[in-house]
Amino acid sequence: MGAQFGCPKKQTKIETNIIFIMGVSGVGKSTIGSLLSEELAIPFFDGDDFHPENNILKMSRGEALNDNDRFGWLKTLNELAVKQLKKKGCVIVCSALKESYRNILNTNIKGNSKWVFLNGSFELIEKRINNRRDHFMSSDLLRSQFDILEEPKNTIEIDISLTPENIIKAIKNELKMKSEFGLFGLGVMGKSLSRNLANNDFKISLFNRHVAGKEENVALNFKNEFKELSSAIPFDSIAPFVNSLQKPRKIMLMVNAGKIVDGVIEDLLPFLDDGDILIDGGNSNYNKTKERFDYLMSKNIHFIGSGVSGGEEGALKGPSIMPGGDKDAYKEVQPFLEAIAAKDANGLPCCTHIGTEGSGHFVKMVHNGIEYVEMQLLAEVFIILKRLGNDPDQIATILEGWKETANSYLLEITIDILRKKEGDDWLVNKIMDKAGNKGTGNWTTIATAQLGMPSTMIASALFARYISFYKEERIIASENFKLEDNLSLNFTIDDVLNAYQFARIINHYQGFKLIQEASVNYKWNLNLSELSRIWTNGCIIRSDFMLELVAIFKTTNNLLMDSNIVKRIEALKPSIKKVVSECVLNELPISNLSESINFLNSFKIANSSANIIQAQRDYFGAHTYQRKDDASNKFYHTNWKNN
Amino acid sequence: MGAQFGCPKKQTKIETNIIFIMGVSGVGKSTIGSLLSEELAIPFFDGDDFHPENNILKMSRGEALNDNDRFGWLKTLNELAVKQLKKKGCVIVCSALKESYRNILNTNIKGNSKWVFLNGSFELIEKRINNRRDHFMSSDLLRSQFDILEEPKNTIEIDISLTPENIIKAIKNELKMKSEFGLFGLGVMGKSLSRNLANNDFKISLFNRHVAGKEENVALNFKNEFKELSSAIPFDSIAPFVNSLQKPRKIMLMVNAGKIVDGVIEDLLPFLDDGDILIDGGNSNYNKTKERFDYLMSKNIHFIGSGVSGGEEGALKGPSIMPGGDKDAYKEVQPFLEAIAAKDANGLPCCTHIGTEGSGHFVKMVHNGIEYVEMQLLAEVFIILKRLGNDPDQIATILEGWKETANSYLLEITIDILRKKEGDDWLVNKIMDKAGNKGTGNWTTIATAQLGMPSTMIASALFARYISFYKEERIIASENFKLEDNLSLNFTIDDVLNAYQFARIINHYQGFKLIQEASVNYKWNLNLSELSRIWTNGCIIRSDFMLELVAIFKTTNNLLMDSNIVKRIEALKPSIKKVVSECVLNELPISNLSESINFLNSFKIANSSANIIQAQRDYFGAHTYQRKDDASNKFYHTNWKNN
Question: Does A376 touch chain B (CB under 8 A)?
Answer without folding.
Answer: yes
